Amino acid sequence: MEVLLVLIGIVVVIGLIAVLWGVGVYNGFIKGRNLIQESWRQIDVELNRRYDLIPNLIETVRGFAAHERNTLEEVTRLRNSAAAMASQSHGAPNEQRAAVEAELGQAVRNLIVSVEAYPQLKSNVNFLELQRELTDTEDRIAAGRRFYNANVRDYNTKLETVPSNIVAGFAKFEKATYFEVNDAMVRQAPSVNFGEISSRPGVGQGSQNPSALPNPGQFNQPYSAPSANPQQQPQWQQNTPPPQQGGQQPPWNTN
């Protein structure tokens, strides 16, 4: 009888420990889920701030850079698409929205890079202020995305790890969604077409004609002995600089 009571006591203690452990794991899942939601709200605030800043940027650039019409229309289209997708998903993150937001950020950066060719726009106070605010917003979005994805990684790892996955299965916790882009094309850095910029009207006026610039070769005339024919010298010898005066050795021959 005493042995039976001891066994019952052991079972009860083990059961209490298991219950307490399960409660702790459950509370950990709740804490991780709330942390993910809080970190996402920070990103959502910055994304909505970007939605508000872009129309002002479009109108400011349109007044000085009418030739950027295609770029402005693309930025406007992506902004409207991202805002509509955010409304449809009720602010929740998903891979499709992450891709659209990444394209929008890329388009805004391309626009800011392209308008660097317009001196009047670069000196406009409104544009400079919008550029600064958008840059700060993009930095906060990037920092918030890293913080959010780190919380998602920790939560999902705990969700799939034994034995905490047992509690997750009973409580029906679901995996959280990363807010990142898996498309390699979207991840590419923005490209700048300098030929297009140089062909815009009013861009680069007042600069010197490249054909009128001095030839850099005339400042680096090949050195040759008085009796040598420069035309018969090999290419490596034509580019050899003259020996320095004063007995100083060249920096590559200091031994």
From TrEMBL:
Subcellular location(s): the record lists: Membrane
The record's region (Disordered) falls at: 197-255
Which keywords has UniProt assigned to this entry? Membrane, Transmembrane, Transmembrane helix
Membrane topology of this protein: Single-pass membrane protein
List all Low complexity biased stretches. 229-255
Do the record's keywords include Thylakoid?
Answer: no
Q: What is its main location?
A: membrane
Q: Which GO terms describe its cellular component?
A: membrane
Polar residues bias locations: 206-228
* Full protein name: LemA family protein
